[in-house]
Structures are given as C-alpha cells and as structure tokens.
Amino acid sequence: MDTSPNNQNQILRASQTEALKALADHQHVLLIAPTGSGKTLVFELHARQFDRVIAVVPLVALARQLAQNLANKGFETIEGFGGSARSPAKGEKGIWIVSPEVLSNRLEVTRRWLPEFLFVDEAHCVWDWADDFRPEFLSVFDVCQLSSLRSSYWATATIPSLGVRFLREGLENLPLHIVGQFSVPSSIQIRVMHESLHKRLGRVREVLSTDAKDACVIFVSTRQLAERVYSALQAEYSSTAYYHAGLSPEERKAIESNFRSRKTRFMIATSAFGMGMDISHLRHGIILQPTVSLLALAQAIGRVGRTGDSAKVYAFWDSDDFGRLSWIAEGSERRGRMLAEAEAWYRSRACKIHILEKYFDSKSPDSQGNCGRCSGCANISH
Questions:
Q1: Residue 219 main-chain phi, psi, to 5 deg
Q2: For residues 269 and 218, is the Cβ–Cβ distance under 8 A?
Q3: Which sign, positive or negative, has the C-alpha torsion 270, 276, 282, 284?
Q4: Is residue 27 part of a domain?
Q5: Domain end (from 124, 157, 179)
Q6: Could you tell me if 99 and 210 lie in one domain?
C-alpha cells in the first residue's frame, strides 16, 4: 500500500510521514510524540497492507480502547487480553491485540501464525517494567527476530535515553530508526510547591476554586489515598470521582466516559489513569505526592494541555515524602537511581523543564536561561 501523504485522506505531520516511510522500507521504528499527536494513526495506515499483525498493549483499558477504535474503522481484531484472551486460529487474519503476558505464554502459537508486523504501544513500558515488574515484555524482542516479520513500530510519548539504548540492545542486530523526541509543550506551566502533606488539601481546594474550575486531575500514589481525598473533597465539589485499578472494568469505563463528556469535573486518580488517556479539555493537573521517577512525572504532566491551550501542573513535595518512598529502592539499584533523579528534580532550583527534557534526550541543547514556564525560573515562584 502506498502510504505517502498524497494517498491518505488526511494531512500527515512530518513525524508521521517519516515513520511511515521508514516502516515501508521494512525498518524497526520508534516514534516519540505526545499523546493525541497521531501515533496510532501511523499504526493503522501501515497495518492495512498486512494480513497478520500483532499489537502489544500494556493495559487492558488501552487494549479495549484500541480494539473498539480499530473495529469502528473496519479492521478485523483478535482479542488477546483480559479474561477472554484468545490466540489467532490457523489461517486467521486480523490484528491480534495482546498483553505481554499472553504473548509470552503463546510464543509458539505466535511463530506458527507468521506475523508480518508488530506494534508495541506505550513502548517505554518495555524498559520501565521488563526488568522486574513485568518481565514478559521481553517477549516482544523474540517476535522481532521471526523471519516472517517485515517491520516493527514502537510508540511512546516518554522514553529516556537509557530506555532507547535498552530497546536497541534488545533488538540485537536489527537497527532502530528513531523519529521525534520528548519535549514539554510550550503551553504548559509547571509549578513545584514545597508543602507538608497535611497542608496540601488546603492548597488543592484553592486551585480547584480559582484556577482549575473547568476540569482537573489529581494524581495520588495509592488506591486508599484516592478514596480518602475523594471523601474529603466531594462535599464541596459534587462533580468529583476517583479512579484506580481496584475498580471493575465497567466502573472505570463509566468514570472515563463521564470525565470525557464533562459530567465529572475533578478526578482523583492513581497512575492507572495515566498512559494513553487523551482528554482534550483537561488543562490542569495536580501531582499531590512526588512521583517515583522522572518517567512517571512526565506521564502525569502529559495528561494536560492536549489542544495547545494554556495548561498548568502543580507538583507538591516535602523531604518527608522521599523518606516514605525509600522502600521502592530496596533491592533495586536501578529503582534507587530513578527515585534519586526524581528527588533531585523536585529539590533543584534550576529550570524544571530543561532538566526534564535533558533527562529524556541527553543531546538536548543546554538551557538558554529563563523559560518563563516553571517554578525553577524567576517569574514563577515556588
């Protein structure tokens, strides 16, 4: 299939065009671009020329969303996620949407199916989780070595330089073509606020009552805290909900729908509301406690300002927070380093945006002075 812009019924961004051209040349491609910038469209356009496609998706909610979107566009899909996960039958054509765990357990079935194209959604998870949390992610590299595979496409909004190196090493002798780079959108301001934990709800109320009247997501670290903050706020802010992985799929789907349609204005959520959630009208975010890594921080920041309108993120911290998070580093030098990098970011009085962009791209140019958009710079106070 000809995937040049002239043969599509839409105008493609330069990054999309470059990614499609590299895929057409049978390359392995990593596209780094914000949520809502058309990464999935690249997958759809390239997938149309193949009979057997694998899409590896890390979360059931995202897999369900992808399956619905593809079905609406006329794609045949095979659901390899959730409680009713299945494998493709012999000779069956379609896009097999699969979790890393199902893929890892069914590699022999995968080999016999002869997949032609592999899509890895939220590709930063391969680096972030394969080391300890979900080692099944490593099976994507086995698929890349199959002789039937023509190309692979890896998409993410946030992957640091170390993560890119990890993907290159996993692909072994297969070159990885990289398109795009991480950046904090120019419409977003970041305010880091040094505040003790017991005083933060008061500051949250100030933000919700003045600055973020339209919509706001409040990120917390645990399910229990999500429900506690919800209980503390719902009397004053009736259009409020909480969201975490302990809710049933039906409950989460209903909450997502209400938030998208603006029936719910304020959402208290764990990181379960993070990856891939594209809420176009969301312009305010509150990170109530420090994140455990700069990757998690960037994912939270990336939930706001999708349309290019001005947006603000408030990130709270105190020294005691990092004492409470120290258990994360136990037994893992890598996790300890990531936590230390996050703590250094919160403590630094340098440009917050520059530090973040430098972390994700070591070749990022040095800071050019006051960015005017963060609390590390002169015109936005801590």
A1: -90, 130
A2: yes
A3: positive
A4: yes
A5: 179
A6: no
Is 31 within 8 Å of 43 (Cβ atoms)?
A: no
Residue 83's domain comprises 5-179
Residue 192 lies in a domain: yes
* More confident of the two residues 34 and 346: 346
- What is the b/e burial string over 138-159, where b = at least 16 CB atoms within 10 angstroms of the residue's CB? ebbbebbebeebebbbbbbbbb
Parallel/antiparallel/unpaired status of strands 176-179 and 216-219: unpaired
255/334 same-domain check: yes
Phi and psi of 161, rounded to 5°?
-55, -40
Q: How far apart are CA 293 and CA 370, in angstroms?
A: 24
Assigned token pair, 76: 């045949």
In this structure, the answer to whether residues 102 and 173 fall within a common structural domain is yes
78 lies in some domain: yes
Q: Could you report the per-residue pLDDT of 312-322, keeping only the tens digit for each? A: 999 999 999 99
Does residue 366 belong to any structural domain of this protein?
no
Question: Mean pLDDT: which of 152-156, 201-205, 243-247, 366-370 is highest?
Answer: 152-156
First-last CA distance in the chain: 53
Quick one: pLDDT at residue 4? 40
Q: What CATH number does residue 23 fall under?
A: 3.40.50.300
- CB distance 149 to 113 below 8 Å: no
